[in-house]
Every structure is written in C-alpha cells, then in structure tokens.
Design brief:
Number of strands: 14
Bound molecules: beta-D-fucopyranose
CATH class: Alpha Beta
Oligomer: single chain
Mean pLDDT: 96
CATH superfamily: Glycosidases
Strand order of the largest sheet: 2-3-4-5-6-8-10-11
Shape: globular
Number of helices: 15
Number of domains: 1
Largest sheet: 8 strands, parallel, barrel
Distance between the termini: 9 Å
Structural class: alpha/beta
C-alpha cells in the first residue's frame, strides 16, 4: 500500500470563472473571460461562464459536499473583478463579503482554504488599458492582493499568487485560444514578465497582511520528450522545455530567463527593468505543480524527420482532452522541482482527467478511468516522497464538473457530476473512492 506521511493535505481545486456564475451580480465587473465568451466563435458551443455551476449561490451545498468527501483543504480562486470591478480603485464590498462567508463556512467544516488570487479572470477595464503586456497591470495586481489579503488574511494562511502564468501569457496573448485572444509574440513575452513581476511584488504584501501566511505560485509543467533520438528532435524538445517550463522556473529560482530561449525568441525584452529579476526571485514558501500530461516534441525543420511516427509511444491511453496518460511524468517533475530547483515545499495543486461521464439508469456516475488515473498518479507522488521530495499535499482537479475554458462544458473533470440544466450534483464513484483515500491517508483500491 502507498501510504502518505502524517499531515499530508488532501484537497480538491476549482477556479472562480469556471464555477461561480453570477457574472454580473452584486456589483461584479466584467472580466476578460466574460468578454471572450460573449464574443461569438471563441468558445465551443458558444458556452459561457455566466451561470457555470452557480456556485456563487450554491456554495453552502458545495461546502457540504466537500465535507462529505472528507476534503481537508480546498483550493479556489478569487474573482478580481468581483472585488475591484474596474481593476483598481473602488472596492465592491459585496464581493469581499462573498469570500468572507465562504472562508467562515470552510473553516467551520474543518477545511483549510488555499486561495489563488489570479486564475485568469482579469478585469476587462485593465485589459482595455493594455492588459498583462502593460506594466501598470502588475501594479494593479498588488493593490488587489493587498485588499484581499487584508480582509481574508486572518483566516487564509495559504496563498497562491498566480495560476499557470504560462497559460495566461501563451494562450491568451500568443495562441489566442484563451482570453483576451491576442496573437502577438511581443505581447506574450511582456505579459509573462509582468505576471511574474506582479507575483514578486505581491508576495511581501501578502506576508505583511496575513501573519504566518505561506505564499507560493502555481505552474503547469510537463516533461518534454523528443519524438525520436535525432539531434533535431532533441533540440526541439529542449526548446519546448524552455518555453513551457524553464521560462517560469528559472526566474523564480533566481536564475533569470533561460539564455537559449531568449535567443530563440530574438526579441529586445526591453520591458525588463532594473531589479525586476530580483523581485521575481523572492523566496517562496512553496511551489504548486499542476500536472496533466507530457509533450512529445518533434522538430518540424528537419525534412528526414517527416516519415518518423508522430509519437514514440503510440499505444498509450489518452483522456477525453486527447492528453496522454503519463503518470511517471509527475514523479519526474516533482524530482526536478526539488533536486534541480530546490523549492522548499511542493503541493500538487491540480491533477486529474476528463472523461465522458454519464449518469447511469440507477442515478449513479461510475468513472473507473478517472479512479485509475488518480491512483496511478498518486502512486508516483508517493514514490517521489520516498525519494525525498518535500511534497506536502495533493489537490484533485476538479471538485465539480465545470466550464473548461475554450472547450466550454464539453469536458468533465469533476469528482462531482454537475447536471448543468438542473444544477443537480452527484458524487461520482471517484469521489467515493477519494473519500476512502483521504480516510486511509493512502492509495486504496
Ligand atoms: C489547468 C487549469 C484549470 C483547468 C485544467 C484542466 O490548466 O488551471 O483551470 O482548466 O487545466
């Protein structure tokens, strides 16, 4: 049996835009995701987060369900435009009150809150002033972090500044598949820098407002494997590693931006000002790892590579996202974070899988593939702990089926099934299994 150390934290995660709904209620301002979803052609099936899981109204039921699963911790995010409808300046007290009540209910239920300040729902007004490519957005983030940590800092002791800055910058400003849907390399690079800068500036502010706080950042990382042993594919894989992983890990670990990737982009990077890199390298209490899959990379530049198979491991399983199930990648990354980058503590802040879940005729939702996914990954997590990695906790993605960004409601990641037409919640068999894992503090069958 794979047993976890005493005090290991078991949780589940969500984010504001994906579950809350109430997109324009009680004084909330518009976010870039509201705008993006309300623009036709951006999201599958024209889905929006207008209602989502209606968590803004149904949170007492959701906290009760967390308790039923036995969660010890809950990672959620705070909607910036619910607190500061214009991004900075006037505070919407009703927004703060919402999270205030949620914190009290969580603590009452014995569930430790892990609050993420930014999970992609930037106030639209700030986007209108340039968004993340503009430096003042980072200043606005610090003001927002100050407001929130003053109000909740007595009860929230685990703070996450940003969720996945790679995704915010790359998908939002270069690929265009996420809000605000831009496709500009210079914007992407400036956005990534200002996100990291916002993080670095906010950490001491949160620590000042929230005594004994533990503050970290969440990164989505993935091993990048060459599709063949060719020199070209290996070089391409290392470059992909630089774009996805090292571009964030290195500056956070006081190593600056990776020189090979700076050269690859070949841009002036003139948005980097004196002391920025010192700011970004502020020591952290922990780093959060979001892990789903790996990337198999081939070089497109090499003509002879064309006839090679697309992936070296074609027979592996994939989830409904088309993502390969590769649990060993979790072990590899945990080891890298500790042994190579020396982060003092690590949480797995997201890990999970989408499958096409259905309600059976008996009213149950049976999801054996998800249980198998969790099990395989938890075994790798336990293996990393045995190897000496200071892994402190695990958060399943996600508590609830929810709005999966550009895929809308077509991808279900929840431990809890949500019928989006009635808002009925049903614990999937994975939730029942997870309850037994938590109770045993071990991977059970
Ligand atoms: C991560 C996001 C999370 C969710 C999962 C599937 O990149 O942080 O919101 O969409 O992927």
């Amino acid at each position: 049996m794979h047993t976890f150390p005493e005090g290991f934290v078991w949780g589940a995660a969500t984010s504001s835009y994906q579950i809350e709904g109430a997109w324009d209620e009680d004084g909330k301002g518009e976010s870039i995701w509201d705008r993006f979803c309300h623009t036709s052609g951006k999201v599958d099936n024209s889905d929006t987060g207008d209602v989502a899981c209606d968590h803004y109204h149904r949170w007492p039921e959701d906290v009760a369900l967390m308790k039923e699963i036995g969660l010890q911790a809950y990672r959620f995010s705070i909607s910036w435009p619910r607190i500061l409808p214009q991004g900075r300046g006037a505070i919407n007290l009703a927004g703060l009150d919402f999270y205030d009540r949620l914190m009290d209910a969580l603590l009452e239920a014995g569930i430790t809150p892990f609050a993420t300040l930014y999970h992609w729902d930037l106030p639209q007004t700030l986007q209108d002033h340039g968004g993340w490519p503009a430096r003042p957005t980072a200043e606005a983030f610090v003001e927002y972090a100050d407001v929130v940590s003053r109000r909740l800092g007595d009860r929230v002791k685990h703070w996450i500044t940003l969720n996945e800055p790679f995704v915010s910058a790359f998908l939002g400003y270069l690929e265009g598949s996420h809000a605000p849907g831009h496709t500009d390399l210079d914007e992407m690079l400036a956005a990534a820098h200002h996100l990291l800068l916002a993080h670095g500036w906010a950490v001491p502010v949160i620590r000042r407002n929230s005594p004994q706080a533990r503050v970290g950042i969440v990164l989505n990382l993935g091993p990048c494997i060459p599709a063949s042993p060719s020199v070209a594919d290996r070089a391409a894989a290392w470059r992909e590693d630089g774009i996805l992983n090292r571009w964030y890990l290195n500056p956070l670990a006081a190593r600056g931006y990776p020189a090979d990737i700076v050269q690859h982009y070949g841009r002036p990077m003139d948005f980097v000002q004196a002391n920025d890199l010192e700011t970004i390298a502020v020591p952290l209490d922990f780093v959060g790892l979001n892990y789903y899959t790996r990337r198999i990379v081939r070089s497109n530049e090499v003509p002879e590579a064309k006839n090679l198979p697309r992936t070296v491991f074609p027979n592996r399983e994939h989830t409904a996202m088309g993502w390969e199930v590769y649990p060993e990648g979790l072990y590899e990354l945990l080891g890298r974070l500790h042994f190579e980058y020396r982060f003092p503590a690590i949480y797995i802040t997201e890990n999970g899988a989408a499958y096409a879940d259905q309600v059976g005729s008996d009213g149950r939702v049976d999801d054996p593939q998800r249980v198998a996914y969790f099990k395989a990954h938890l075994k790798q997590a336990a293996r990393a702990i045995r190897a000496g990695v200071p892994l402190r906790g695990y958060f399943a993605w996600s508590l609830l089926d929810n709005f999966e960004w550009a895929y809308g409601y077509s991808k279900r990641f929840g431990l809890i099934y949500v019928d989006f037409s009635t808002q009925q919640r049903i614990l999937k068999s994975s939730a029942h299994w997870y309850r037994r894992v938590i109770a045993a503090n071990a991977v059970v069958d």
